[in-house]
Structure formats: C-alpha cells, structure tokens
Fold this protein.
Amino acid sequence: MKILILGSSGQIGKYLYSHLVKNYDVFEFDIERNSDEDLRVPNNKTLDFLVSECDFVYFLAFDVGGSRYLAEYEHKIEFVLNNLKIMVNVFDVISNYNKKIIFASSQMSNMYHSPYGMLKSIGENATRMLGGRTVKFWNVYGYESREEKFHVISDFIYKAKNFGQIEMITNGEEFREFLYAKDCAEALETVLIRFDDFSPSKPIDITSFKRIRILEIAQIISEIFQVPVNPGTKVDEVQKGIYNEPNKDILRFWSPKTSLSTGIKEVVELYNERMD
C-alpha cells in the first residue's frame, strides 16, 4: 500500500511517517523539506503525481501552531488565505483522482469565534463530500523544531530548560486533553486500517480522553527541571472556556498507551539531546 503524508515534517507528521514507514510505502510532502512542496501554490505537478500513485492521503498540512501562535496570527488575512489556498489545491487534486483521504481537523472546528476553527470546519465538509474521513485532534504533543509554533508542552520545556523558570501566559486554569504523538500515529494507522468502519459524516476524535489543567502540565515539567512556575493573569482567549466532549467511537479499535508523565519525559529527553 502506498501512502502520502501532506505535512510530513510537522509535529504529528514526523511521528506518523516514522510509524508507518516500517510497514508501508510512505511518501513525504512538506514545505519544510522543499519549497517546491508548497501546497499554497496551485497546479503542483509533484503533488498531482503522488496523489495519482498513492492509495491513501493523510492531509495534515495546515498553517497552525500552539495557542500563542493562534492568538497572534489567526485573525490576520494571511493566515486565512494560506489555509484556504492549501485546502483548495489539495481537495481539487483529491477530487480528480477519487482517492481515500484522512483529513486532520481540530476539536475547535465548532468554535466559530475562531478563524482557525471555521477553516477546519470547511475542511471537514469538503472531506465528507469526497467520501473521506475526518479525525479531530485535541492537544497532541511531541518534539517540535520551530519555536514560534510551539504548542504548550514544548513551550514550557523550552522555558524551563533555557530560562530556569516557566512563565505562563494564562493563569493555567483552562482544561485540555493531551495525547502523545506516538499514540496519535498509531490511532491514525487504525483509521486507515478500519477506514470503512467509520462513517464519513461523523468525525473521529483522537485524544487521551483525560482532561487536565494547563497549570498541572506546568507543574509536571517544573518538577523535572526543578524550576519555579509563574502563572500569568490572563484567561484563555483562544478557546474562550469552551469545552467539547469527545466521541469515544475510536476506542472500539484503539486506545492510548503512553501516560502523560512518561510522554513528557520522553519529549524532554529529545529536547535535551537536540538542544545541548
């Protein structure tokens, strides 16, 4: 089976590639690898060829980052246009070849105060029209290389390691669900294998199904590095206190394996190896 990963250099894409390449023919596609792999540019011959040759396409590519990145950029026209261009070009090619697609959405797709959420909602609808499957991520964490796009766990590790303290943006009272990227990669393979067992009209929630406060995440990381935590004064302005209940349908076939403390320690080890 041949599989194409769009966004193969991203946080989830890197883990997914490493997981799948053991058993499948996997092709990568990401602007971080090569400027010719820019999905914002229409009529990409390489994209067209790879889609035509592959059996499955994972559509992970998106202009996105952690909450700090979203707070700064999601209300800018460049952010909206970048993601619209990516979706138009990818869905156009997919429709030409009638390929099976797994689209990466977000649990924020029903949060219409958020341009990011609205864009993901558009992607979900296009995927359904093409007979694909949508997976909804909540908060996937793993090693990241681009500081400006760090999600919260990477951000806290970076601050603890480089500044000897964890300065938080918010008061940390907001709740999130965190899933290690290794477990996420296994879940994504499960969706591929069980593709026909999932309905195209019902997004598949991929999460840990365990809710925890951001402040508690900071405290776990502070104990590893033995540094203080300084909570901020702001409240959550990205999700604005909105919480969704995940659908547990995927638990019929898959369940997370890695505890939060174990996953964070593994990510810390990766940062220690690559940043020293």
